[in-house]
Design the sequence.
């Protein structure tokens, strides 16, 4: 079925497999299957709509509205909501049923959901479990001594990064898994002491590498396998390598910037694989591993029979249109940030831990079952708009609301971006679909102007900093540095300065937000283009747009090239 997206005008195809999966995902209420319609928006617009709710990394100091204590929250102090510190929010000092209400069949569902969302106290941070000395982090599980890292689990002594699993002492990363002592890496797995590197696995003590596996002591190399002492893809002796590294002044900001440009240019000589990933069977997408029979999934591991899923790193089955998470997740549709033994979820945001049969709800967890339009419930079942019903009453009322939503055109759609609690620029939508303020407003998104104050003894333009870290005094910790790109002031913290000194790295000249955007701009978009292999002309689907300068090989040609 060929459709035209009413939002971006792109034409998109809803395939027979999509329809089959939607049938499998259609909720059964009162012993009757309520079919999900084919999506109205294209995949990108659906993803953007979900992401406009997802504030993973904009956090602010503010007060808890229950205790008055100073806390850190994803809600800036100027937001109109009540915000409770997360331990209080999960505690017994308030009752989400107090905000319960009847459903009004004369009004659209989403309008009524927004009123509930505006009244229920909000969770300060989306953090599961206890963190240790990591107040300024969010969207994570089990982190210790970390600062400004987001979306992941298990990290110790890490700063400034997004998406991680099991990392130690890493700084400025995007998508780091099982890495240690890495800096400015993108999509690296099981790497140790790698700097300015991308898409590499099982590598150590290397600089500026791309698509390398099992390498150590390599510099400026691409597509190498099990190599040591290579510089710009040429084999050197140990002595030559060490001599080269000695003359490379990595403490100099200018030297490093020049090297980034040089390596980017050099890498263009080496082909990239149509799609990155290992151990997949019958999949399309990118950055996929150990996955099977899945279509157009990106940054996912262990997904099976899934369509249009993104960032599900810990496994999913029979799901469509999910951004973030997984872990024994089955039969879920049009949801964001859901996981841990969840099944039969539709239109959910931040619903987790044993949730089953949940429709259009947010912030519900811990063995919840049969909820519809609920916010902030734990250990509850058969509730609608935060009101308790009997099992029979639930089935009857839920069925009537579904029929109502079919008439209003809301059934099968995710919440409209207009009811998101965040400015577009505070959410991950800005990372994946960056917009200027005026354009975002024209498209109906809200925009946050709030900025946490930066306290400092003096302000210095980043361009005025001494070139070498060796010449930066300790006093830099008291300075507000003005970002070269955005003019936004930022500070360096002590632990971070020690890292730069220990590893002979330059001090960043850009605000952490801009560094995050820069890394994600290097990551390929969640979009597949039809192209042909630059070697054998076979037709391929790739995240490299046809106009990009890289040479793209099909998997077969790529493997012949690198092995
Ligand atoms: Zn669209
Ligand atoms: Zn080929």
Sequence:
């Amino acid at each position: 079925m060929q459709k035209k997206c009413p939002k971006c005008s792109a034409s998109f195809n809803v395939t027979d497999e999509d329809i089959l999966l939607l049938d499998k995902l259609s909720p059964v209420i009162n012993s009757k299957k309520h079919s999900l319609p084919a999506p109205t928006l294209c995949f990108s617009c659906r993803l953007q709509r979900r992401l406009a709710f997802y504030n993973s990394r904009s956090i602010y100091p503010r007060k808890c509205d229950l205790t008055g204590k100073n806390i850190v929250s994803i809600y800036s102090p100027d937001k109109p909501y009540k915000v409770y510190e997360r331990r209080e929010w999960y505690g017994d000092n308030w009752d989400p049923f107090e905000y319960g209400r009847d459903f009004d069949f004369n009004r659209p569902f989403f309008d009524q959901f927004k009123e509930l969302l505006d009244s229920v106290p909000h969770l300060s941070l989306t953090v599961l479990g206890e963190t240790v000395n990591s107040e300024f982090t969010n969207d994570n599980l089990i982190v210790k001594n970390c600062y400004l890292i987001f979306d992941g689990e298990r990290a110790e002594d890490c700063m400034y990064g997004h998406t991680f699993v099991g990392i130690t002492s890493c700084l400025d990363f995007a998508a780091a898994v099982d890495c240690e002592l890495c800096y400015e890496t993108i999509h690296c797995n099981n790497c140790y002491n790698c700097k300015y590197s991308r898409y590499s696995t099982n590598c150590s003590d290397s600089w500026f590498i791309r698509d390398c596996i099992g390498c150590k002591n390599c510099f400026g190399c691409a597509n190498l396998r099990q190599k040591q002492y290579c510089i710009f893809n040429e084999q050197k002796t140990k002595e030559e390598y060490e001599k080269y590294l000695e003359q490379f002044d990595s403490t100099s900001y200018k030297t490093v910037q020049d090297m980034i440009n040089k390596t980017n240019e050099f890498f263009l000589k080496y082909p990239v694989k149509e799609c990155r990933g290992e151990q997949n069977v019958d999949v399309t997408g990118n950055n996929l591993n150990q996955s099977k029979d899945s279509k157009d999934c990106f940054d996912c591991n262990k997904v099976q029979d899934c369509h249009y899923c993104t960032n599900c790193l810990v496994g999913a089955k029979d799901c469509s249109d999910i951004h973030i998470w997984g872990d024994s997740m089955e039969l879920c549709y049009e949801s964001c940030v859901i996981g841990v033994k969840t099944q039969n979820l539709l239109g959910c945001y931040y619903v987790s831990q044993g949730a089953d049969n949940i429709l259009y709800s947010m912030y519900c967890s811990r063995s919840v079952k049969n909820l519809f339009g609920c916010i902030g419930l734990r250990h509850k079942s058969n509730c609608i708009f935060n009101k308790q019903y009997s099992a029979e009453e639930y089935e009857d009322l839920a069925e009537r609301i579904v029929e109502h939503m079919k008439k209003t055109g809301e059934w099968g759609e995710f919440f409209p971006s207009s009811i998101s609690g965040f400015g577009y620029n505070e959410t991950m939508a800005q990372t994946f679909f960056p917009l200027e303020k005026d354009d975002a407003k024209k498209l109906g998104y809200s925009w946050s102007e709030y900025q946490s104050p930066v306290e400092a003894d003096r302000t210095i333009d980043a361009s005025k900093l001494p070139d070498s870290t060796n010449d930066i005094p300790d006093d830099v910790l008291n300075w507000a540095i003005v970002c070269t790109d955005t003019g936004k002031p930022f500070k360096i913290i002590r632990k971070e300065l020690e890292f730069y000194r220990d590893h002979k790295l330059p001090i960043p000249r850009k605000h952490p937000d801009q560094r995050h955007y820069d890394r994600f701009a290097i990551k390929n978009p969640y979009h597949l283009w039809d192209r042909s292999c630059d070697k054998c002309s076979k037709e391929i689907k790739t995240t490299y747009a046809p106009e990009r300068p890289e040479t793209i090989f099909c998997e077969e040609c790529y493997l012949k090239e690198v092995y």
Remarks:
- The chain has a mean pLDDT of 97.
- The chain has twelve helices and 40 strands.
- The pocket of zinc ion (ligand 2) is lined by residues 533, 535-536, 538, 553-554, 556-557 (CB under 6 Å).
